Amino acid sequence: MTSETPAQLDTPAMRQYRQFKQQYPEYLLFFRMGDFYELFYDDAKVASRELGLALTARSKGPSAVPLAGIPYHALDSYLARLVRAGHRVAICEQVEDPKEAKGVVKRDVVRLVTPGTLTDQTLLDQREGNYLAAIFGPRSADGLAGVAWVELSSGAFQTMLTPADHALDELIRIGAAEVLLPEGSSFDAPEFRDAVRQCTQAAATVRPAWAFDAHGAMEALHGHFQVTTLEGFGFDGWDASLSAAGAVIEYLGETQKTSLAHIRVLKKFDRTDHMVIDGNTLRCLEVHRTLRTNQRSGSLLACIDETCTGTGARLLGRWLTFPLTGYGAIVARQDAVEELAADPGRLADIREALKSTAQVDRIAANIAMARVRPRELVALGQTLQRLPKLAELTGPCSAELTAGLAPALT
Asked: What pTM did the predictor assign?
């Protein structure tokens, strides 16, 4: 066989590939060609190194184009490895039937996958949250910075104001997988980006300044929630926390390219309701990770985690990170624990019923984003069938936090 010439490499499909690559230069572009996703040029070299793929070429000699590919059905497993390594991936699909195509098959980038925007359960740790955060404001010691964070896989969305010199500690407490930083701001400084990576292991993503300014952020939030004011969410006026929240919504719109209807509420997080534990203390106490291995195994959380579901494990992790300080809230939680602990038979039955339930919040999010899989719908149906039993078991509960469980389950 003769090798391809540069002119032969300039096919309609390759021109199409280069067009999309120019739009997403910071992403590894997975380009759908039949039953494979193919990567070219430097993307192919990165994929070959990170995934152990064979690196081939579309030609020989000076005009050789590096090429690597994976079967389309193996995408999830490879995505997980790339994202864990800190890479961002653009998924370019064929959007028309090749048999009906007149000329080159139409393709489009249908999704951008980044460390903080994972929703597929095969890519997520079932017992840990996966958060996208944003930060905005001055870094002066006497200034207030806004920090917003969302768990796209469940729809939980919160924002807070914090002293600017505590902002990094808040990112550590949140456990963000990706942090959005306003371009040209003091938070975009190399030393802060490095601190984010080293202290949180999060990917630092620099975003245009207009996404954080009052006009751009307000437009994003008002458009998403279909409101003209955020007073209904408890926000009186504009501040840095809403600028950060708006930047989160703008980024999700750009990367997800689908409905975000499951993000229905923006909650104001009040730091005074919780004990503030700085990042260094969390590390030294090994609350979530051990100092030696930086793994969950052996941490305080791992030692006390007897939860039956991934949802419960994630909730327990948040409780340890953000301990309550209000007397009433603490007593209400203690009363609920005491009530169940005093009835070990009922507690055992509730635990047994919970063991076979699915992570409803994550499945609901995938339904909203039109990404749900058949097996998730089956698991959701099986979980719904078990709700009457859980309602029956929790019916006699009378503590403040448990009394409302049965009505909510029926």
From this structure: 0.90
